[in-house]
Write a structure and sequence with these properties.
It contains no helices and 13 strands. With 120 residues, the chain is mainly β. The model has no long low-confidence stretch (mean pLDDT 83).
């Protein structure tokens, strides 16, 4: 089983205007870094136009209806958690008290209610 390498990036427009974007606009882009035929892909980001606001890794797990990324805020029957990558794996970190458990414990039936960068 292959783990798909994906990133969720929030980019901020640096130019006064470009297409439908204006200076300061922030948009979210999703990138898959693996191609079945060629291996690793490169996605050029024009740093003259865009500034990286955040970059989150895909955990390989899904919630009820969405992919779970690092930085997501999830709610399960056990509480509310922030998804973090620590000690070599993704963890669900309780926001109310220090509790840090592997994410797979909470992904069944959890709901993504936002992320640390922007509310959903």
């Amino acid at each position: 089983m292959k783990h798909e390498i994906k990133l969720r990036m929030r980019l901020k427009m640096k130019l006064d205007s470009w297409g439908s974007y204006s200076k300061g606009d922030i948009d979210t882009f999703y990138f898959s870094l693996l191609d079945e035929r060629n291996g690793l892909l490169k996605y050029p980001i024009d740093f003259d136009k865009w500034e990286i606001v955040s970059c989150d890794r895909y955990t390989g797990l899904d919630s009820v209806c969405d992919e779970i990324y690092e930085g997501d805020i999830i709610k399960s029957s056990l509480g509310t958690y922030v998804v973090e990558f620590t000690d070599g794996c993704f963890h669900a970190c309780n926001v109310e008290y220090e509790d840090n458990v592997p994410l797979y414990v909470h992904n069944e039936g959890c709901e993504i209610i936002g992320n640390i960068h922007k509310k959903k």
